[in-house]
Design goal:
The structure holds 2 protein chains of 2 kinds.
Chain A (H helix, E strand, L loop, with lengths): L9 H19 L11 H4 L6 H12 L11 H4 L2 H12 L1
Helix pairs in contact in A: 1-3, 1-5
Chain B lengths: L6 H17 L4 H7 L4 H10 L17 H14 L3 H21 L2 H13 L4 E4 L15 E5 L2 E12 L6 E7 L9 E7 L5 E6 L10 E12 L3 E2 L5 H15 L2 H20 L1 E2 L2 E2 L4 H30 L4 H30 L6 H9 L8 H11 L3
Parallel strand pairs in B: 1-4
Antiparallel strand pairs in B: 2-3, 3-7, 4-5, 5-8, 6-7, 9-10
Helix pairs in contact in B: 1-4, 4-8, 4-9, 5-6, 5-7, 7-10, 8-9, 8-10, 9-10, 10-11, 10-12
Classes of the chains: A mainly alpha, B alpha+beta.
Chain lengths: ~90, ~375
Amino acid sequence: MMRADSQGDPIVTVASEITQIIQQLARARSIAEVRPRDNLLAQGVVDSLAIVRLTHILEERFPIRVVDEDIVPENFRDIESLSRFVQSKLG
Amino acid sequence: MDFALTDDQLAMRSEVIRFARKELNDDVIARDADGEFSREGWRRCARMGIQGLPFPKEYGGSAADPVTMTVVMQALGYACADHGLLFAIAAQMLSVQVPLAHFGTEEQKTRYLQPLCAGEMIGAHGMSEPGSGSDAFSLSTSARRDGERYLLNGSKTFVTNAPVADVFLVFATTDKSAGFMGVSAFLVEKGFPGLTVGKPIGKLGLRTSPMSEVFFDDCVVPARNRLGKEGMGPRIFGEGMRWERSLILAFELGAMERQIEACVAYAGERQQFRQPIGGFQSVANRIVDMKLRYETSRLLLYQAAWLLQQGRLGELETAMTKLHVSESCVQSSLDAIQVHGGYGYTTECQLERALRDAVGARLYSGTSEIQRNAIARSLGL
């Protein structure tokens, strides 16, 4: 399990880990590249199937629990908002 | 670990079986041929308390737990020959009433949940569209806010109960930029301006359960009829599906139970080569496989109901239950016909209708392929 405080600036580490996760999801959907502020929901990188996988991955990589109430556009719209969401969960 | 039903549950099972045999089995062969829905059967079930089973007493329900609900639905499936009626009732309870009970305002529950429990209203669930089925949230139907109302545009297909429904739970996109998280849910009455119900769609089985398309042309829906907040569509849909995928096949479990009894009786009576056909291993083994399918289905289904009761039902158990029970009831229906030979193939024997009714189970509430995808996901694949 990756810990946010395991190396360097925790915010940068979370953002970089999230970027990797999202790029993997995007590649699986034949989307070549996702920039930090690209809309993941409108692009279909995160859809109703991918959200289940994404929440599993987040819970595996970070010591957090994603509950139903967390699954709102504000938390999953782009890499930046997702990083902020994970960071807020980490406290 | 105690797998036994309580005395109350056993008494309820006996009472439901007696009720169904006496009140629900008139003219099923003819009504199936004509695709005729039984409104009288619907009312009788409501008087028996079926539609209100798991819902709070203040809305006319009896607050039964999911295991008790499964006992009742299995008993209905066992004794009632009109599985179209049972499917129509279960679809309303699990995909309309459950979301309404979980996410509805007090006003919405009083206005809709109460009459749905009482059998005074019929509810329908509108999600699938001509362009979206298994990919449920790629919706074209949109809802645009206009002051204190929404304007809905688009269409829904394969809407169970639509031709007879008074209220529809409809999913529509309110924010396209939010992808599937931009889907919201609405309670739309049949009399709202701009709503049109299409002609009934003919189908292979469950023919006494009417189904049609529904069209929305600037359909005016008051803002107070939005169920939950904007963007809560996936959660509302998911809650209904969790219940539906776990429990809707309880009536097919009852059918499997009845088929085994019929096959054992027939194989014991029917003589060929101067002995009962049950004495031939090829016949007996087929019935053995039916029994195994029934018992494994029963274990999965009651486990799912118990987990639901504990608030611990996950995607894996839901998908395994739906997949195994639906595939089992189709195979066992085929086997029941095979055991009965030429007679099993006739309309009069009623096994052919059970097979036609069972096939839909592999499609509705998420196809077998979708359930396999969900199981694979749960395994990390």
